[in-house]
Design goal:
9-stranded mixed β-sheet, single chain, 7-stranded mixed β-sheet, alpha/beta, 9 helices, Purple Acid Phosphatase, chain A, domain 2, globular
């Protein structure tokens, strides 16, 4: 997610008694905001391959979403909460983020139960019945009182609130991101301990380099899903956060070099067996804007060509970006945020950061190739996921169709959900 999620709080203003907080990351927003069967998208039509997968035992459906940030303001409305004191440039109390959201969309009856934040996502999961649920968890789970020195934004959730994840039947959480160590290495160790007491498998961070690099292996009735998780410096992960043989930290992706590709390829080769599906979960890139750097695209292609990856699952962007199908395999460059406490914060409205997507890719387990991708749009209001309105679904369809056409794919709207046209 962001490198400074409120982000440069030096730009906070008080307007009419409300905070104005531009959500700027470390990178500048991209200026390029304008920019089968036969299905119509607005005034356009597409003739690509949009189809539902055959009902075959060799097909597996995943659920994926962007950043899940259940700390800070979200933590303050849950049954157990940490000390609300935070150390941001201007905001010193996590409950201020609750107040901002309430001023925008109305009072939240606190405390909420653990199902509350998931809202309509719960019924979508029940309808789609994915075989496995994968998220990027972008908060520390700790009561540690001291944040990382000079870290502008600090997310943490009380360990007792881990129930908010288990009640959603989350199977896997990537910890390779730029907020896992917001409360230091002690906070990371408490996070690992809290998640270790659940059925949620993790990857991307650990007590040492060996544990941080270790892929997650999810054994399902249909076969194995393996997740390799990395956090890139381009998303704001500090180099000092890198795990070492003797120090806890994240599984850092320092660059997009051939050496990095070869290292990931060796990891995958050591664990992948015939019939396995391997997901590369990577926290990378800027927070705002649709343009995908060529180096990032080349690296994603190399993951498929050289490293044995079947699906590239990228996150860090605050809004969904264009998607590609390369060699028959899905690349999600940026999934967008899924849960956060930014509701009352102004700035970058043209990207509609309040809208999020539930991703349901169905893959052929024998080949790892994409059979279909269903996308269910949601909107976050009062810290709760709601079905997006018809107007918002149409807006997302148009924007993502435009941005995905760059990669030779498109989006087709079907009632209240979208299908990838490839």
């Amino acid at each position: 997610m962001e490198r400074g999620a409120v982000a440069s709080l030096a730009n906070i203003f008080i307007l009419a008694g409300l905070f104005y907080v531009p959500l700027n990351g470390c990178s500048k927003p991209d200026a390029n905001v304008q920019r089968s069967n036969v299905y119509s998208i607005g005034s356009r039509t597409g003739t690509g391959k949009v189809y539902l997968p055959p009902a075959a035992s060799g097909a597996i459906t995943l659920f994926m979403c962007g950043d899940v940030m259940t700390g800070r303001g979200i933590d303050q409305i849950l049954p157990a909460s940490v000390d609300p004191r935070i150390y941001e440039s201007y905001v010193k109390d996590a409950r201020d983020y609750v107040r901002l959201a309430e001023r925008k969309n109305g009072e939240i009856q606190k405390p909420v139960d653990y199902k509350y934040i998931w809202g309509n996502a719960l019924e979508v999961w029940e309808q789609e019945k994915p075989d496995v649920r994968l998220i990027n968890l972008e908060t520390s789970i700790t009561t540690q009182p001291e944040p990382w020195p000079e870290k502008e934004v600090q997310y943490r959730m009380h360990p007792d609130n881990v129930a908010v994840l288990t009640i959603a039947s989350i199977d896997f959480a990537s910890l390779a991101n730029n907020h896992t160590l917001d409360w230091g290495r002690s906070g990371l160790m408490e996070t690992l301990q809290a998640l270790g007491q659940t059925n949620i498998t993790t990857a991307g961070a650990g007590k040492d380099l060996e544990e941080a690099q270790k892929p997650a292996i999810l054994k399902l009735p249909k076969g194995r899903v393996i997740v390799v998780a990395y956090g890139s410096v381009s998303s704001g992960v500090y180099k000092e956060w890198a795990a070492t043989p003797s120090r806890a930290g994240v599984n850092l992706l320092p660059d997009l070099s051939q050496e990095a590709i070869q290292g990931i390829a060796a990891q995958v080769k050591a664990v992948k067996e015939p019939g396995d599906v391997v997901v590369f979960s990577v926290h990378w890139g800027s927070n705002w804007g649709y343009k995908i750097p060529q180096a990032q695209q080349d690296f994603a292609h190399s993951m498929i060509d050289e490293a044995g990856i079947d699906l590239v699952f990228g996150h860090s962007s605050h809004h969904p970006v264009g998607m590609e199908v390369y060699q028959g395999k899905l690349i999600v460059y940026g999934a967008g945020d899924f849960i956060n406490d930014y509701e009352g914060i102004s700035g970058h409205e043209q990207y509609r950061g309040d809208l999020s997507l539930m991703y349901f890719p169905t893959l052929d387990m024998e080949t790892g190739k994409l059979l279909s991708l269903k996308l269910v749009p949601m909107q976050l209001r009062k810290f709760r996921l709601h079905h997006a309105s018809e107007k918002d679904v149409a807006w997302l369809a148009d924007v993502l169709h435009r941005e995905s056409m760059v990669f030779g794919t498109g989006l087709v709207r079907q009632k209240n959900y979208l299908m990838l046209d490839f």
